[in-house]
Amino acid sequence: MDKRIEELYQRYLSGELTPSELDDLKRQVPFVSDEELWNLMCEDFSSSSESARMTYESQQKVLRNIHEEIRKDKWHSRARRLLRIASMLILIISLAAGSYLWYESFTPTAPVYTYVSVKAGNKSTITLPDGTRVSLNGNSQLRYNVVPSKHREVVLMKGEAYFDVTKDPSCPFRVKVNDMQIEVLGTQFNVRYHKGVIETALFTGAVRLSSSAFAKDYRLYPGKKSIYQLASHHVTICDNDGSTDARWKDGYLAFNSQPLGEVLKEVENWYGVTIQIRNHHLPKDKLTGAFYHETLESVLHSLSMQYGFKYHINHDHVTIE
Question: Is 2.60.120.1440 the CATH classification of the domain at 114-239?
Answer without folding.
Answer: yes
